[in-house]
Amino acid sequence: MHEMAIAEGILDIALDYAHKNEAEHIRKIGLLLGEMTGVETEALTFCFTSLVRGTMAEGAELALKRVPLIGHCAQCGRRQPIRHYNFICPACGGGLAIVSGRELRVEYLEME
Amino acid sequence: MEIQVMQDILGKNDEVAAENQALFAAKKVFALNLLGSPGAGKTTLLEKTMAALKDELRMAVIEGDLFTTKDADRIARYGVPVIQINTSGGCHLDAPMVQSVLPRLDLDALDLVVIENVGNLVCPAEFNIGEDEKAVVLSITEGDDKPLKYPLIFKESAVVVLNKVDILPYTNFNLEAATEDIATIHPGAMVLPVSSTTEEGLFAWYQWLRQAVQKKREGYSE
User: What is the pLDDT averaged over residues B24-35?
Assistant: First the structure.
């Protein structure tokens, strides 16, 4: 249940930006969640909802965008989706390095 | 108004992890983040490791535990410095927790710090604590499907210790299949079948640790 730690991270970032931009209310928080991150989205939403009570982000919507796991083969240069967590290049047998899919990131904020 | 942020949610943790890592680098101490499920045998592996290597490597242990000092008490018997971190129910160690206890270790007098994380295959994989490497202990009784079910922790770990191989004949654990799955998730990861009870295979684990410590020492003395 590290979703609470992640929810706290999200709120810290959102409040920080809201203060910097002199906003009064945070309406929406856009998140990028990589396919290869151990985040249970239901638990995250639950933690976030209870965490933001009484803050500027109370009632804010969490907009989750999943980022697919994509790899790059150092050997043959192909860029391809990684399926079933198999990091061996199906074309040449080389190792696939992660290009995307490990994101745990606040992408944007909507404030007023 | 909408503003672009593009900030990593665990960015603060990563910053502190980088500070811990810089400290370990300056002191030439190899820091190992030891992971695995509850009951996989992390503490037993550590006990065997201390008994075998404590006269050869200057070690200390940081014990992550939900509430108790049971593991720290086991470690203390070996005369190795041990520091307990209670996460009070938290499912993983994070970099600030480790940073807060590092001043209590005499890093100048150490070669190796093993940080035994909270027993869990999910959460600790997401949190860097400033380690040089992660090692995960997977025991035979947990089943050979675990690498594919919890791929991140196997992707992150340089070494996978397959523990309790002495009971392989009594289970349906397929050692070949598990090794193959680990190799596809993390090509190049080292898989070490061991039994902490019979001490089968432990030599390879000790060798890996010895080499890691030596590499760390030399890497910064050039």
Answer: 98
Residue A74, in any domain of the structure: no
> pLDDT of B118-138, one tens digit each?
999 999 999 999 999 999 999
Q: Can you state the angle between helices A3-20 and A41-51, rounded to 10 degrees?
A: 50
B3 vs A2: CB contact, 8 Å cut-off?
Answer: no
Is residue B177 within 8 angstroms of chain A, CB to CB? no
Counting the structural domains of chain B, the total is 1
Number of H helices, E strands in chain A: 2, 6
A9 contacts B9? CB cut-off 8 A: yes
Average pLDDT over residues B172-187: 97
Q: Do A110 and B127 touch (CB under 8 A)?
A: no
Give the tokens for residue A86: 């198999």
Q: Which residues face B35 on adjacent strands?
A: B136
Please check whether residue B118 touches A, CB under 8 A. Answer: no
| CATH number of the CATH domain containing B84 | 3.40.50.300
Asked whether the beta carbons of residue B185 and residue A85 sit closer than 8 angstroms, the reply is yes
Q: Per-residue pLDDT tens for A16-30?
A: 999 999 999 999 999
